[in-house]
Write a structure and sequence with these properties.
The complex is a heterotrimer. The longest helix of chain A has 13 residues. Chain A is built from 3 helices and 7 strands. By secondary structure, chain A is an alpha/beta fold. In chain A, the strands form 2 sheets. Chain A has a 5-stranded mixed β-sheet. In chain A, strands 6-7 form a two-stranded parallel sheet. Chain B has a 4-stranded antiparallel β-sheet with strand order 1-2-3-9, with helices on one face. Chain B has a 3-stranded antiparallel β-sheet with strand order 6-7-8. The radius of gyration of chain B is 23 Å and the shape is globular. The longest helix of chain B is centred in the N-terminal third of the chain and has 29 residues. The relative contact order of chain C is 0.22.
């Protein structure tokens, strides 16, 4: 049995209904959707039982009403992407830096560019945008329009 | 006597814009902050605006040195979304350029490292020999940088039979020269004194801070995307993952130099086993909706592109995670407790690419409020510095022996 | 084993060899076969009615289509934006664009870098 399907089975066993969707598009890739409050717990569980210590990055995507946040991990040759939805009306999510020290910059990056608020982040200052950037304007949201000059 | 010194964003010791705020106590760094963003160009947003063809060239221009690996990552992601099978010859040529690019990047790094150490002879000679690999890339792609080799569905230019002997000859020369530099780097006192025990990154710390690429491998972490998550033609090639347990700048140097030798062997194997047939297939312009994580091993470490498509001819979201961003937390750890004169080389040892990364600010503020003042005469200072340097070379590692105060 | 001057024999050996650089522009290196220089447009081959696939795919937006008839348009190359990637030559279904070996394109004024080859 491959590591990816092992992850799937173990997660379903432990968290049952909380695992909303699992997709294994090809070998060495797995996408798991979980509800927002469970994120830290699932990461902690994977860290304990699979030795998952490497976070590659965090991606956030504007999907209309919500922002989808994907945590990309790497463990035992498999790229595990945990995805969760954060509503735009209350874009707050818990920090995972205490469990994954490598995530510190990626959390600040999504804070800047998509206007998510990471609760209890050890260092929540701006990372990418300049200091005089307007508050409440998030360049990677879909409502931020870019002027394209021709010629 | 803690003093805060700003270095950069424009500074003679730095090759690209970055700002370091260094707090020093004598010669020892007690605190370091980094501010980036001087090169941020909004490439992820620009990627959403262009179509897939335009984005190949856009991603290639994320970095000047590792342009091919960025477009490889992007193209193979889109190919996966399309379910497109790339002809084997195309994959081999793509991998060949990847490896030549790695040789080019590592030799460039060796020169930069020599320059940062004040060993400019090494810099001049290794850059002269880097011309060999630049010429090979020029023969294959037509350009010395920004090769424009990749396209969705394969590569744009073929390798003809008359190129093969030229490439093999060049690779042989490169291998010999690199072996010579390995000898220089491991025997020359000028080099050893400045690298041994400098910028220590213990293995546990490298794992904890999620370091990647030669930075992690120089600390004994055996992680290489080429082996652990094989892509392109890597499943068909024989190579070994080079690691070093030294964990200092010397370890990272040795890893890079040995990787060049390893890459030379891979290039030879690719040329010898190059499959016949087509080198590209036609790709449709519209990509079905989906999401994909595409990973590769760039010269500097693990590179990730996340692409989400929406059924049109342009991506919904393009996310790029470059290796320098992953390694920056490690380098700050390395610098703390070290000496101010070692900043350029420790920083250069992760092979930072600001154009790739450019997005950070960390400030660890313990020890910030020290206001001790100390008056010292010129003669005392001279004696102190002579003692300091002689002490230093008795205990070469700044982390092993604590800095002695008068 | 460490020593001082590990590169010394190497340096003295190269002291009497030919220099590694060439004196451009008096000496020139050969231009490689796959080189991509200034784009050359062939007005005969252009179909006029494809609405500019070259302009759509140009990553640098260096090609603009100019109306020449009711439904017909021809490309204008803005060389000051061109990245010389050669995608236009690849995208054109009629092979109307090729990339030449011309690379010395520096100029004092922007106007001279707008290339209308028809």
């Amino acid at each position: 049995m491959s590591v990816a399907s092992d992850v799937e089975n173990k997660l379903k066993e432990t968290f049952g209904e909380q695992i909303l969707k699992v997709r294994i598009p090809r070998e060495r890739r797995i996408f798991v959707r979980i509800p927002l409050p469970k994120v830290k717990e699932v990461i902690d569980y994977l860290k304990q039982s699979f030795g998952m210590v490497h976070i590659t990055t965090i991606t956030a995507v504007d999907v209309g009403e919500d922002i989808e946040v994907l945590y990309h991990f790497f463990c035992q040759g498999v790229t595990i992407s945990l995805s969760t939805f954060v509503p735009k009306t209350n874009p707050v999510l818990d920090t995972i830096t205490p469990v994954m020290p490598g995530a510190i910059l990626y959390e600040r990056e999504i804070q800047d560019l998509l206007g998510l608020k990471v609760k209890d982040h050890p260092d929540p200052r701006r990372l990418i945008l300049p200091d005089d950037w307007e508050e409440g304007v998030y360049p990677l949201r879909k409502d931020y329009k870019v002027e394209v000059k021709e010629g | 006597m803690a003093v805060t010194i700003p270095i950069g964003p424009q500074h003679p010791a730095l090759k690209e814009p970055i700002n370091l705020t260094v707090t020093v106590d004598g010669e020892t760094i007690v605190d370091i902050g980094v501010r980036l963003g001087y090169n941020h160009r909004g490439i992820e947003k620009a990627g959403e605006l262009g179509n897939y063809i335009q984005d190949i060239y856009l991603t290639a221009r994320i970095c000047g040195i590792c342009s091919h690996i960025h477009s490889t990552t992007f193209c193979q992601g889109v190919e996966e979304l399309l379910g497109l099978e790339v002809p084997k010859r195309g994959l081999y040529i793509r991998t060949l350029v990847c490896e030549l690019e790695r040789i080019h990047s590592h030799l460039l790094w060796l020169g930069v490292a020599g320059h940062e150490l004040g060993f400019d002879t090494l810099f001049m000679y290794s850059w002269r020999d880097r011309e060999i690999v630049m010429d090979l890339l020029e023969i294959i792609s037509g350009n010395r940088v920004n090769y424009g080799m990749n396209t969705i569905g394969g590569v744009r230019r073929n390798i003809t039979d008359e190129m093969k002997p030229q490439i093999l000859k060049g690779i042989q020369q490169l291998k010999e020269r690199t072996e010579y530099y390995l000898g220089v780097a491991s025997t020359e006192v000028t080099f050893l004194r400045r690298t041994e025990g400098v910028g220590l990154l213990p293995k546990e710390k490298a794992i904890e801070l999620c370091a990647c690429g030669p930075t992690a491998r120089g600390s004994g972490v055996e992680y290489d995307v080429r082996r652990d998550d094989p892509y392109a033609a890597y499943p068909y090639l024989d190579f070994k993952v080079v690691t070093s347990d030294l964990g200092d700048v010397l370890g990272r140097t040795v890893v890079r130099v040995l990787e060049v030798i390893e890459s030379c062997k891979m290039c030879r194997q690719i040329i010898e086993e190059l499959p016949e047939g087509e080198f590209r297939t036609k790709a449709p312009r519209k990509v079905p909706a989906g999401e994909v994580v595409s990973k590769t091993e760039a010269p500097r470490g693990e590179l990730l592109h996340y692409i989400r498509s929406n059924g049109t001819d342009h991506p919904e979201r393009l996310k790029v995670r470059t290796p320098t961003l992953a390694n920056i937390t490690s380098v700050l750890h390395c610098l703390k407790g070290g000496y101010i004169a070692d900043i350029p080389i420790v920083f250069a040892a992760i092979d930072p690419c600001m154009a790739c990364m450019d997005r950070i600010m960390i400030l660890d503020s313990e020890n910030r409020n020290r206001k001790e003042k100390q008056a010292i005469s010129w003669e005392e200072l001279r004696k102190y510095s002579m003692k300091w340097y002689s002490d230093r070379y008795q205990s070469p590692s700044p982390l092993k022996g604590e800095a002695r105060r008068v | 084993m460490s020593k001082i001057g590990a590169m010394f024999p190497e340096i003295s050996r190269y002291l009497f060899k030919k220099r590694a650089t060439v004196l451009y522009p008096f000496e020139r290196l050969d231009i490689p076969k796959n080189f991509r220089g200034r784009p050359i447009y062939d007005p005969e081959k252009c179909s006029l009615k494809c609405k500019g696939l070259c302009a759509t795919d140009c990553p640098a937006k260096a090609i603009i289509m100019e109306q020449v008839g009711e439904e017909e348009s021809r490309p204008v190359f803005l060389l000051y934006r061109c990245a010389f990637c050669g995608q236009c030559a690849e995208s054109c279904p009629f092979g109307a664009i090729t990339l030449s070996e011309e690379f010395e394109l520096a100029s004092y004024d922007k106007e001279s870098l707008i290339s209308k080859q028809w």
